[in-house]
Amino acid sequence: MASERLLRRPTGPSGFLESFRLLADPAPEGLAVLDSGGRVLAANPALAALAGPLAAPRPGSPAAVLLAPSAREAFVAALASGLKAVPRRRCESRLAIRRRRRMRSGCCG
Predict the structure, then answer these.
(1) Domain 2-105: which topology?
(2) pLDDT value of residue 98
(3) What is the pTM of this model?
(4) How far apart, in whole angstroms, are the C-alpha atoms of residue 74 and residue 101?
(5) Could you tell me the pLDDT band of residue 18, with boundaries at 50, 70 and 90?
(6) Displacement of CA 16 from its chain's centroid (Å)
(7) Mean pLDDT score across all residues of the chain
(8) What residue spans define the domains of the chain?
(9) How many CB atoms lie within 10 A of CB 66?
């Protein structure tokens, strides 16, 4: 079962891509994971079927080639603006979150 395999998956980039495949391969929509440069890291079979055998996305290939030439510039611009707009979140432990909540509520301090 996919959900059980998701729970036991390894962490890190390879675990993420394995999880993507478990979830995306059965999907009827074309899906892909891209790196920050717009290159394909992984794609599901539906996207390969949509693209056809000559343009099927392969790891490392630019995703822009899957788009109509008139849409490529807008895709590259959207990718660049999205990378600038997404702030990196600070990782907090559960203990740190509890401490912050206690401080806000005025409890214990």
Answers:
(1) Beta-Lactamase (3.30.450)
(2) 75
(3) 0.62
(4) 42
(5) confident
(6) 8
(7) 79
(8) 2-105
(9) 21
